[in-house]
Design brief:
Layout (H helix, E strand, L loop, with lengths): L2 E7 L2 E8 L7 E2 L4 H5 L19 E4 L4 E4 L2 E2 H7 L2 H10 L5 H12 L8 H6 L7 H15 L9 H26 L13 H10 L10 H14 L6 H11 L4 H12 L7 H12 L5 H9 L20 H16 L6 H15 L1 H5 L7 H11 L6 H22 L28
Antiparallel strand pairs: 1-2, 2-3, 4-5, 5-6
Helix pairs in contact: 2-9, 3-18, 6-7, 6-11, 7-8, 7-18, 8-9, 9-14, 9-18, 10-11, 10-18, 11-18, 12-17, 14-17
Bound molecules: carboxymethyl coenzyme *A (CMC).
Amino acid sequence: MSSNSTLSVDNKAVELPVMEGTIGPSVIDISKLYAQTGMFTYDPGFTSTAATEAKITYIDGDKGILLYRGYPIDQLAEHGDFLETCYLLLYGELPTAAQKADFDYRVTRHTMVHDQMNRLFTGFRRDAHPMAIMVACVGALSAFYHDSTDISDPHQRMIASMRMIAKMPTLAAMAYKYSIGQPFVYPQNDLDYTSNFLRMCFAVPAEEYKVNPVLARALDRIFILHADHEQNASTSTVRLAGSSGANPFACIAAGIACLWGPAHGGANEAALKMLEEIGTPDRIPEYIAKAKDKNDPFRLMGFGHRVYKNYDPRARIMQKTTHEVLNELGIKDDPLLDVAMELEQIALKDEYFIEKKLYPNIDFYSGITLKAMGFPTSMFTVLFALARTVGWIAQWSEMIEDPSQRIGRPRQLYTGAPQRPYILEARRG
Ligand code: CMC
């Protein structure tokens, strides 16, 4: 059902269509507002702006709900695997057994990277941040796979998508191996996606490596939790980059660059560093006070979310996964976990956090889990990027396939100097 809303601008009534989604808030279509009024809307940070119509992921931040193609995240994480989630995000439906087997096979066939990429790696310093390497290497895929950069060809788009989903674990593991001075481990395609990734990260040629199925399952679940998250900063970056017709590898590299920031994907690294800095539960009140102090820029990392004003549904599953991993590894008393659990309890009862609806987000527990598995903090955001790649691709594909798609071009409220004549250098100052 469509309706209209009326906006009064300079005493003139402007009729604006209201568009309704299947669930969630309706939106006011302002696309003709400038033509009708000569005015733009102003919404820095896009807190009230739907930048696109989308059918992939739905979040109800007040209720703490996250759906991929309509399916609740907890059910997907409980019953499915990551490649099933990839299929769902890309194609809109859960696969049949035959479709799943075919998809797994197609992804697996692309796990190797062009051998020349090894040389690209050796150009980096060993202490380079692996996210810097990922931005460069994923962007560089467009220099290696010319046969899948024509975005007007659906087949090439599909191959590029498969390549990125398949090669991200290989590149991520290579970035890690390079940083610790160990040889690259090639993919082994009889392993499942996540087991293969663990092996590429932790196996060495000198020894037999056996994948721990509990850890593989836990990491696979972490990938599911991170696979997509609606129009967040990195996804919007991918869409904006893609709106100009840039090739898919370049677009995903742009998404990785955006994800790196500590307010977005970098928060899991920042959260773990914060827990380490707090060190013991008795120091928590000091940090809570810092977080509440308006004059102190410190924020409790892993708390708060632009959209969730309730417990992040991913954080619940993440907390359970953390316990499973620590149990499996026989880590009985982890001081970081003690600090995290105590901090969570204190913050959830604190008036400041209650009033601002600041709840733990997914990053609060993921760092502890990844650290226990053996990943260094610098790899945390890389793992996030690996998992989010499918979400970025699904959103990018949706945009490219939308016949009404146009280049994204936000406008501005200009507050700089008005027009003025050029001043010759001799007359300045
Ligand atoms: N600790 C202390 N105060 C906070 C925090 C925090 N973590 N987060 C928000 N606030 C306060 C903030 O100071 C502000 O107070 P006031 O209204 O008095 O000025 C109020 O809450 C609203 O904050 P905001 O910055 O306007 O909210 P936002 O929606 O722009 O920011 C956020 C969302 C996630 C960037 C922010 O909560 C934050 O910086 N959290 C810590 C970083 C973090 O954990 N990020 C991971 C996000 S989840 C992973 C992902 O999806 O990428």
